[in-house]
Amino acid sequence: MAYGRLWPAHPKPLPDELLSSWIVRVAQANGIKLQTLCWMLFGNERSPWNRDVDRSAPKWLIKTICEHTGTRYWDAYHTTLTTYRTILYPNRRRSGQLRWILPIRTFAMTRKGYGQQFCPKCLAEDQIPYFRKAWRVALFTFCPKHQVMLHDACPLCDVPVAFHRSDFGVEQGNMRPIFCCYACGFDFRAATTTAATFPSKEIGELFCEVLPFLQAPIVRMERFDQGFFVVLHQFCRIMGSHQNAGNLRRFVANRLGIDLTEIELGRTSIEHRRVAERHDLLLCALWLMASPTERIREVWEAKAVRYNLMLKDIGESPKWYLQLVGKCSNWRLGYRAI
Ligand SMILES: [Zn+2]
Ligand SMILES: [Zn+2]
Predict the structure, then answer these.
(1) Ligand 1 centroid from CA 146, angstroms
(2) Ligand 1 mean position to 121 CA, how many Å?
(3) How many CA atoms lie less than 13 Å away from 179 in the CB half-sphere?
(4) Model-level pTM?
(5) Rounded distance, CA 327 to CA 338, Å?
(6) pLDDT (tens digit, 9 = 90+) per residue, 258-276?
(7) Distance between CA atoms of 88 and 133, rounded to whole angstroms?
(8) What is the 142 CA–ligand 1 centroid distance (Å)?
(9) How many Å lie between the centroid of ligand 1 and the Cα of residue 149?
């Protein structure tokens, strides 16, 4: 395989495919080890696996892969999570948490963190199995196509999914396919599935409307703009916080007539929670988002959430939210119809 020329096999990114998934497929299609491919492309110093390559792929890395696969730059760029910027989070940041983006901790080549999810049915149906960008987004707790919960770890050994490690330390030819756990070999396509359930039709419909919107090739600023996701995130944070002590979640659960599951309260952000907890938080937060004008008032009057907590650490927030919360600023005067 000569450097600087188009490689014999040059698969293009599949719909909504993650950059890391595509790189792994490129190596496998050419019958070379991923490590060898990365060494040839980037050298030892610049291994893409020392970073969260899907989150922050440098231009040179994308350009190099494009050269060898005959892919257009923007098609390759769209395999990175950067395309969620301005819709899910405001700025490109090299470090720290990105709002709604699930973290995978990278240290050398070991990934710790349950930030890579998958849908067994999508993988099983794929002619060429691959990993989607949407599976790295905290809002995706279930697959909108198959209506089943996503897995955020290997169902057999509970190790985080790290498909790029499948050929590390093994001989060429013994590589595990992308859909198998690198640690125990379990075939993710055979994982059992649990149907996604929603406490009300309204919440189910809203959830099922939000997710495909994020998967659209070009994210349009319509109903679900950055402001919507900022406020949704804020309610998830409030419900997971010590300060609120579960009051808001309890109120919403009572209102919906559902049982409240235990979640760990504290500083853990939604992005660091496992999929089941995220799903629970999102269901309650979406109840508020389905009708914010009435429901923000309702939860405040029921003392399920305090005024200052609704604004705490929110950063940039949409005008409509500030106006609604502003009406809750004085408990003595009550909700003010401004
Ligand atoms: Zn699916
Ligand atoms: Zn496993």
Answers:
(1) 5
(2) 5
(3) 18
(4) 0.92
(5) 7
(6) 888 889 898 788 999 999 9
(7) 13
(8) 8
(9) 9
